[in-house]
Each structure stands twice: as structure tokens, then as C-alpha cells.
Amino acid sequence: MPIMDILAKNCAEFGNDICLIEINPEVKETRRVTWKEYDLIEPNPVSHYRREITWSVFNEKANRFANLLLSRGIKKGDKVAILLMNCLEWLPIYFGILKTGALAVPLNFRYSSEEIEYCLDLAEADVLVFGPEFIGRVEEIADSIITNRLLFFVGDNAPSFAESYNALTADCSSQCPRIPISDHDDAAIYFSSGTTGFPKAILHDHESLMHACRVEQNHHGQTKDDVFLCIPPLYHTGAKMHWFGSFFVGGKGILLKGTQPEFILDAVSREQCTIVWLLVPWAQDILDAIDRGEIDLSAYELSQWRLMHIGAQPVPPSLIKRWKQHFPNHKYDTNYGLSESIGPGCVHLGVDNIHKVGAIGKAGFGWKTRIVDETGCDVAQGQVGELAVCGPGVMTCYYNDPQATAEVLKDGWLYTGDMAQEDEDGFIFLVDRKKDVIISGGENIYPVQIEDFLRAHDAVKDVAVIGLPDKRLGEITAAIIEIKEGKACTEEEIQRFCKKLPRYKRPRRIIFAEIPRNPTGKIEKPKLRKRYCGESLVAAQNEVELVMNK
What we know:
single chain; alpha/beta; Rossmann fold; Luciferase, domain 3; GMP Synthetase, Chain A, domain 3
């Protein structure tokens, strides 16, 4: 069934229950308002610390936007782009789009004007819905994008080149439009992270969205009583598809603006959150703040918090070991996925397999996995190959890009580009991204293995290992290391620490700098390569290599 049927079911069964709460800790709390109060009294949704809506209001808002789109000629198969920060409006807008039979097209809030226009054109978007944070970027391209698109502004004082979402939807019917939609109708276009250039447009159907709901609820057993804390951006499949597990059973979701440790713990405590999905840097920040004495866990009510899970990137086992020391009663899980596989869950560790921390797990609910060589044949257990997945959540295609689609979709299998190996118990371990493998003197070096090793150092907060050009070896390894606040470390100390590694895996270059990550937590290695691959640095690297080989 289409995912909108779950919204209708939740509205019918739990209409008066709060379903979504938006919290902005950086705004002083004056009073708490519901969305209905905001509609009648307070026109500026950004001015409040906390807002909430019920399932009935959620459904009503989705219906109003759907009817607005239909009244403007938007029809089944058209595309509607969303450029919003996380807010109460985000999900009703998303479901309103789906109710028309149009495709929802979420956009990364970090996109530049050029990238916004590129993605609108690539997805052939007919409408752009955007918020106040993006007025400047949209204005730069307004003249070129408005000729064939509707622009709706979510907020007060709509700019001259856009129409007011608030004013227009207020006059629209709250009745559900009756558009026939099947599981195999197109539903959404998501964009790849764009780490190798401009992003690709990933097309999913309604079956993919429903499968994401079932996978998440199967893996983590959400009930109506669970409260899910959502921090990552909703434009990405990861955050939203984890929330889908709560949505599936009518559970409550908390949209938190801000990632500071005290914000996260305060939200868990005040809102009685039971499930929290974190990115590695946020978990690291919480642990570091506790260790520095900046956070006293006894000041928070955390006994109801039952599950902490992590995804979007490899998870250092040392991080989870530290986490369990402070939170011994937490269940832990990690999920692996891609936007091409409708986000998390095609592989997952499982809450009962903490003894296998470091692995991404086994095939998730309804999924199959293989590890293959360059010819597409399965490799022997323990050998490194490319991870491929198959299941109802695999994308339909890269939209309007048959060549790129053919490169990754083969006989129903999605080739992920991630190098992996399987242990004797059938658990899959990521080795690295295929494109990130460093070949130095004929040896394949997998940066993730070195990164996990270096993160065990007490002074290391974050680390990225990249390959840098070298005339003799082709490439050498460089470790960019971000040091924890209040800690000190030298290059010599890191080199001594790395003597536990095989010689060919030891970084030839140590650089102390901040590690750039995108909104979904992935290290932005192309930025690091661009920054550190200059000719002068190559010469310096060769000097370091000579010293280290003595």
C-alpha cells in the first residue's frame, strides 16, 4: 500500500495524539504553542522554542498542501522540490506532495545556488518549496528558475519572486484528494552525496518507501509508546527512514535543532525519548563532554532511553566501548545503507550482536547481500570484494541517466561501491569505499582500517586517511587528525603509536587539522584531497618518507 495510507490510519486511530515536536534550544522558551495556536495567534514559527502537532493536524496540513498543488495544475508524475531546514512543516509538505501522486524531491540545505538550480533541472522539478534560510540563494537564480516553476515560500514576508505557502494553504480544502496511487508508481527523487562531483538523482517508488517503514520497525521494534529523537536533516534518507519506523506504529517524533551534547541530553530527558539515532561525531562529542566533566548525567532523566544506534559511516569499536561504559543499559545497533537503497537497513548489526561491533552486520529484513569481485562472481569468505545488495528498497534508476544506472544496477543487484569482507559467522565488515582505496607500491591500503586504529588514541577526536601523489610509490597515505579539545599531541607521538601497524599501513604524512563532514556525517575526502595534493606538499611528503624509512 502507498505510505500515505499509514498517515490516514494514524489520523483515524490516534488523531488527538501529539505526533511531532520541534525543539530549538537556541531560542529562549516563553510559552509552548501548538500548530493550531500558531495558525491563529503566532505567525512566525521560528520564534518559538517548542512547537507540536497532532496526527489529525499533520494529515490536515498534508491535505491542504496537496489540494494547493492540484489547484495549480500539479499532477501525478510531476516533481516538487523541498528546500527547508528541519521544521514542523517539512513532513506534512512531503506527504502532501505524495498525496497528489507527484514526486517529492528533497534538496540538501547546504547546496549552493548553482547546485540548487542543477538539481531542479536534473529532476525536472515543477515546484520549489523553500524556507527563509534560503532566500538569498534562491534569489540569485530566481530569474532562471521561475519561468517554468512555481515557488512557494514557507514563512512570513514572502519575497517578491515567491508565493506564501502559509496564506495559500489556509484557503485550501483539508479533505484528502482521491488520487489513485500504486506501489510501483514513482514516489520520490533523492540525491547522492555528490562526493565525486554534482549529485545524481535517485528515483524510488512507493514500494521502496513502504519497505523502509517495515525494515526499520522490524529491526528496532518500535511501539506506539516509543519516542524517536530525530537530529539529522530530513532531506536525507537516513533520518527520515529511521523515523518511518515510529511513523509506522503511530509513535512520537522529536525534531531537534542543534547537535550540542547538552541539547541532545536535555531533549532526551524532557521529552522522554526512548530511541536516538546519532552520527559518530555527535556521539563522540557527548562522550568527550562527559569525560571533561562538562556534563553530569545525573542531572538528566535518561532511564527510559533504550536504544542508541548509529549509521551513515563506519563506527569505531572504541567509540562503542566508551559509550557502553557510560550507558551500560543501552541497546546498540548500527545500520548500513545508501540513498540508492532507500537509506538505512539493507545491512544491520542487530541489537543482540554487540559482540560484533565493528561489523555492519548481516542482510537486513527483506534484503539479500553478496560480496563480489571485478567480474561479478562471489568472493571466498574472508576475501575483500564489492558489496552488492538486493531487495524491495533498491532504487528504480538514476533519473535520466541510463549509463550511470547500468554501472550500479545489474540483474536486480545494486553494486554499492563499498569494499567489504565477511567473517566466519557471516557478519559483513566494511573495508572502504572502492574509490578511496589507496594503492601504494602495489599494495592495496584501506583507509577505514587505519582510521579505526588511530581513533583508539586518547587524544584523537576524528581522523581521515587519504592517498597523496608520490613519484615512486604512486600514492602514500596521509592521516589528517583532529585533536580533542583540551588535549595535545605531536607528530612523533602519532608515529610511535602507529608502530603497532604493519609498516605499509603506517601513515607517511601526519597533518593536524579539522575534519570536514557533510550533514549526514560522511567525511568529505574530496575536499581534503583538493587541499593537500599540491606539488609543494608532495615534495614534503617525499622528505617525510625518506626519514621514516631510515
